[in-house]
Specification:
single chain; Spore Coat Polysaccharide Biosynthesis Protein SpsA, Chain A; eight-stranded mixed β-sheet; 12% strand; globular
Length: 457
Amino acid sequence: MEKVINENILNNNHLLVDKVHSKFYITVKTRFFINIIIATILTLIAFHFSKPWIRDLSIIFSPITSIFIVGGIALVPGFMNTFLIISLLSDRQPKIKDPTIVSDDITLLISAFNEEDRIFNTLKYIKNQIYSGNIYTIVIDNNSTDNTSNEVNRAMRELDMDILLLKEPNPGKFNALNYGLKFVKTEFVITLDADTLIHKHSIGYLVSRIKASPKDVCAVAGSMLVRNSRDNLLTKIQEWDYFLSISSIKRMQGLYQGTLVAQGAFSLYKTDVVYSLGGWSDAIGEDIVLTWKMLAENRKVYFEPLAVAFTDVPTKFSHFARQRSRWARGMIEGLREVKPWDQPSIFYKFSTGIDLIIPYIDFSYTFFWIPGLFAALFLGNFAIVGPIMLLVLPLTLISFGILYYYQYSIVFKNLNLKVRRNIFGFVLFILCYQMIMSPVSLYGYVQEIFGAKRVWK
């Protein structure tokens, strides 16, 4: 593991440059525009080769509708995936100190609602952290109706932990976190979900990353992975979403200094910044809104891939649908709170602007790609999904191969972790996951537009 931090890895404008692998300074802005240009050129080439497809579709639909369909299910996703891969290939994170030698005192905030089955284990993993500073743990019992508080008291006795147990009767995670924030006295505060287990060096990596960053970096998101992937087929599929897609997107956003979600499940924040923004908002995506408020003030949010935490993902489709529709609603809340064009940085305008396009992609997959697939399989109609779509599969495998290599060689090997054998889950993830995700996300958008009741679990 890298032991030394190069304090000069940032230039005077706090733009990230690569001094490790190159003799030349390549600023973030330069990389950004180079990657945009390359992705655009490749997308234009793809558009040229898709003209026969568009012409065939125009026999059934109007030319504009045909372009709309091809754009939504092929060209726009292709541009985004190309930009993602190119960005990751050009990413060189600055070195950080050994996570075992940073010693800043930190506070953990854990909001717990009916977590009697899992809170003790979460606290046990906190106790086993290898960290030189003091870790102050605050658990906020958010109107639980089970034995959550009793389990926290048991952890105090059996694990010999000094935990501040608070009671917040008003439901809502934002209420619990804001109440706990009043008791935080340290420079940094970490939020942790009550069902999340953190690797023994994860707190050290979060603190090391923010200590190695410019002063305008006010939050660092940890890396979330799946703990219960062996439970059933649904969790096996979700394992690959976290391992490949979510981690890679966060890493790309972190390269451009604007990770869009410092997720409440495991992230570090500067306490004074959270205070100055009024804490967490009354929102279903309270962590998204807080992050976007930080970006709107031209502050930076980073991502640390080695700060690994393991969470339990939904085992039932109904719970999965609630979770992912909630995430979709949170994205809309963020867009409503801070418009992309109001973001101060070109990086943030671009990253948050992508969220304006995602509903278009989800709409296209739901109402064009899925019906087109059924038409091809059962009716022999290849107008929408035909042989040309088969070209996407090898490109997808190449993309995920690159993402897998990074996760395996840079993250898992350094942390002495093993990637579980989950080939069947990977195949289903490649072939079916988007067909599940897009309709669920659309459901979330509709819920938010019509102000449907919030459901957290």
